[in-house]
Structures are given as C-alpha cells and as structure tokens.
Write a structure and sequence with these properties.
Distance between the termini of chain A: 57 Å
Strand content of chain A: under 5%
Distance between the termini of chain B: 28 Å
Low-confidence stretches of chain A: none
Radius of gyration of chain B: 18 Å
Radius of gyration of chain A: 22 Å
Number of helices of chain B: 11
Oligomer: heterodimer
Order of helices and strands of chain B: HHHHHHHHHHH
Strand content of chain B: under 5%
Helix content of chain B: over 70%
Shape of chain A: globular
Mean pLDDT of chain B: 90
Order of helices and strands of chain A: HHHHHHHHH
Mean pLDDT of chain A: 85
C-alpha cells in the first residue's frame, strides 16, 4: 500500500515539466531558441497575408474594396477575446500554484489584449462608415468590445497603481479572475439589451457564406495574429523577466556576457 | 455557530452605529443621488415623453454613482483606523465578516436610495407599475453593486489615491445590473413580462453573494499583509 504511494512517477505525469515552466530562467532560455524562428514565421506570414488580402483577393460585390478591412478586423477581434482567456488562465495558474511567471505573463498579456481590442474597435468603426453609413453603432458586439476594453484598461491601471510589484501581481490575478466570471454575464446582458432595443435597419450585409477565395487569406491572417500574439507576449515577458530578476546571478552573468553593466 | 452569528451581528451593529454617528457619510451620497436626478430635467428638457423614456436609466446610473461615492466607507475607513486588521486577525471566517460589512453598507447607502426612488419616479412621470418594477430591480441590483464594490474596494484598499481607480474598476463590471435593471422598467412600457429579468437579476445576486466575499477577503489578505 505504502509502496504505491512512495513510488515516484516519471515522465509526463510527474508534473516536473509544469513546475519547470514556472522557472523564469528556464523560460528565458527556452524562448531564446524559438523567438528568432517565430519572428521569422510571423513576419513572412504577415507579409504574405497582407499582400494576398490587399492585392489578390477579388472585390466584394456589394462593399467593393472596403471589405478588405475584415483581414485586420476579424483576427484582432478574435485575439481580444482569446487574449482575455489567456489572461484568465494565467491568473488561475498564478493563484492556484503560486507560479510567479504566470502572473508576469498576465501582466504582459493585458496591454497586448487591450491594443488588440483597440485595433478591433477602430477597424470596425472605419469599416462601419462605408457599410453602415456611420462610424459608431451601439450594436451588441461593438458595445461588448468597448466594455472589454475598459476591463483590460482597469487591469493595467490596477497593476501600475501598486508600487510593490509582487502585491500588484497577486491583486491583478484576483481582478482578472473576477473579470472572467463577469465577461460572459456582460456578454449575455449586452445581447439581451440589444434585442430589447431592436435597432431598425442597420445590418451587416448578410453574407452567411464567404467565398473560399476570401476565406483562405482570412484564415491565414487569423493564424498569423495568434502567432504574433505569442511572439509579442514572449518578447514582453522576456523583458519583464530581466527586470524582475535583475538581482539574480544568472541575469547578471547574462549581462556580463553581453557587456552590459 | 451561535458565536459566529453573534460576531456577524457585532460587525453589522458596529458599522450601523458608526454611520448613524457620522450621518454625513451616507446622507451626502443620498443627497447626491437626488441632486443628479433632479439636474437632468434642467439639463435635458422638462418634456414629459422624453423624461419618461430616460427615467429608468437615469435613476439607475445615479444610484450606481451614488453607491460608488459611499463605497470608501465600506473598508477604507476601517483600513485607516486599524479595525480592518482586527477583522483579519479574528478567529471567525473572513468572508462572512466581509459579508456582514457589505450588508451594513447596503442598509446605509442603498436602502435610502430605494426609499426615495418612488418620489423621483413620480417626478420623472413613471407610472405606478413602472415604479414598482423599478423598486424590485433596485432591491435585486443594488446588493450586487455593494458586493462588486466590496471586491474592488478590497483590491485597492491600501492605495493612497484610489477613488478614480475604484470607479474604473467597478463601472465596467456593473454593466449587467444596469442593463437588466433599467431594461426591466422599459419592458413594462413595452408590455413585456419581467419574470425572466427578475430571475436573471436574482441569479446574478446569488452568484455575487457566493463569490464576492471570498474574492474580497482573498484580496484583503494579499493587500494588507
């Protein structure tokens, strides 16, 4: 009976990999190897995707050239939602397993998510002018994204309000989790509010099926944005690691090696 | 169990006695509520139809802002005079103590608003049925504002200039309550049933009651010590 308990498990289920992920130094060295590759891939895909979307995709029958905004708008809207999920999971990890690195990831994910939301809102309103005839519509989704932006901003504001950084980390994890409970409720309430008010005529030109010549570049751009998110997050976190661990020996060695004092 | 209940009652009584000795704490927020609502006809128009259509949202927004103003009395003053530290050190479970502080805060800062709201409703030309729905939504919704506010207050309690930050934190998360609260009153005018809205608001309240005290006490433990 006791033997079974004592037996050390190895491999995947030993969870060593999980705790190793929590080591800033380990993450820094791991990311060192993949950042050049990832940035090359992101750069190539972004170039290909944008040239494809702007130059080679056929014109939309109703919207003409303006529909090309979709190639920025939809991926950034995707990312602003998934970015919140990413933040929420980092918050959970940092609170449950007390992993420092997760709360740093959370801190770095907030500004990226906020900028994605700004891009989604801005591109949406630019797109709204030619298609809806107005820059801003109090439509369920736009309103929801606006509130999502406020939540992102509140996390950033709270993070910067505390001088003690480790307190700020934990506090922000709690806020991010509270926000996670709230985000679906806000989404439903805004949907309900929208159906209550029933704006009369404004509708997206209803194209339920998108032609494959337009769809493939869109999928490419979505994947590109996800990879770009990963890249940006890694770069910001690497920066954060260096700042937070600046007193640690391995960072000093690293600085010495690069001739930085 | 009986000791716990006595402790909770002691916390509520302490807060209530304090607020009756410092009447300005809650009276000012109450006055603010009445003032904001009565400024709108002056700023917008005294037109009956228009006032009637904006009244539910107006009363709800004013209630939200007024509760935001009185929020610092929930934990901030306790933090400053050290009684919050006593609460944290007490042998009773912190979430329950926080919950009883929230109850006291609601009694002092939200109940007066709800009591005066029929008068404001009449002044803004709401019908009797609309006013009764407004009161029900306020009864269901304002506790959620207190609960969410307590969490945000706990997150910022040790910060020196927290008031603006506090509103930035609280307001986005109060959107559902605002939407359902004001929407229910509008529903009356449209002839729609409100059972679903009340059920949803009740569900939000239950969720807030079960989660918020734990989040607040977790935040207090991080921020304080």
């Amino acid at each position: 009976m006791t033997d079974k308990v004592i037996t050390r498990r190895s491999g995947f289920w030993s969870w060593q990999w999980f705790y190793r992920l929590g080591s800033p130094k380990w993450f820094y060295e791991l990311s060192q190897t993949y950042v050049p590759w990832l940035s090359m891939i992101v750069f190539t895909m972004l170039t290909v995707g944008i040239i494809w979307a702007l130059g080679f995709v056929p014109l939309d029958a109703k919207q003409g050239n303006s529909f090309r905004i979709i190639y920025i708008h939809v991926p950034s809207a995707f990312l602003s939602m998934s970015g919140y999920l990413v933040m929420a999971s980092f918050a959970a990890v940092s609170l449950i397993w007390k992993v420092k690195l997760a709360s740093w990831m959370l801190k770095c994910a907030a500004p990226i998510g906020a900028s994605m939301t700004v891009i989604a809102l801005f591109s949406g309103s630019v797109w709204g002018k030619p298609t809806w005839g107005t820059y801003w519509v109090w439509d369920a989704r736009t309103t929801f994204y606006l509130i999502l932006l406020f939540i992102y901003l509140s996390i950033i504001a709270l993070q910067s309000a505390y001088e003690q950084k480790d307190v700020a980390d934990k506090i922000c994890s709690i806020l991010a989790l509270v926000g996670t409970v709230n985000v679906p409720i806000i989404y439903w309430s805004v949907e309900w509010w929208y159906t209550l008010h029933q704006p009369a005529t404004l509708k997206l030109t209803s194209e339920s099926t998108i032609h494959s010549s337009m769809l493939y570049p869109l999928l490419l751009m979505i994947v590109t944005f996800y990879l770009m998110y990963a890249l940006l997050l890694t770069l910001l976190v690497r920066n954060e690691i260096l700042q937070r661990e600046s007193k640690k020996e391995w960072v000093r060695d690293l600085l010495d090696k690069n001739g930085i004092k | 169990m009986i000791f716990l209940l006595r402790a909770l009652w002691a916390v509520i009584r302490y807060d209530l006695v304090l607020s009756f000795r410092h009447k300005s704490n809650w009276a000012n927020a109450w006055l603010f509520f009445v003032l904001v609502v009565s400024l709108f006809p002056l700023a917008v128009t005294p037109d009956i139809v228009l006032l009637h259509s904006i009244a539910p949202g107006l009363i709800w927004v004013a209630a939200l802002l007024s509760m935001l103003l009185s929020l610092p009395h929930l934990l901030r003053s306790d933090y400053e005079d050290g009684s919050l530290a006593a609460l944290l050190l007490s042998p009773y479970p912190l979430p329950f103590l926080i919950l009883s502080k929230i109850v006291a805060h609601w009694l002092v800062s939200a109940l007066p608003l709800i009591l005066i709201s029929p008068v404001l409703g009449v002044a803004l030309h709401l019908s009797l049925e609309e006013i009764s729905v407004l009161i029900v939504t306020l009864l269901l919704g304002t506790p959620v504002l207190s609960l969410v506010g307590s969490v945000m207050m706990a997150l910022t309690v040790s910060l020196p200039h927290q008031s603006i930050l506090l509103s930035l934190l609280v307001l986005p998360l109060c959107v559902p309550v605002l939407v359902f609260g004001a929407g229910a009153v509008i529903n009356v005018g449209l002839g729609l049933s409100n059972e679903g809205v009340f059920a949803l608001m009740g569900a939000i309240l239950v969720l807030a009651v079960t989660c918020a005290p734990f989040a607040a006490s977790g935040a207090l433990r991080v921020a304080e010590f």
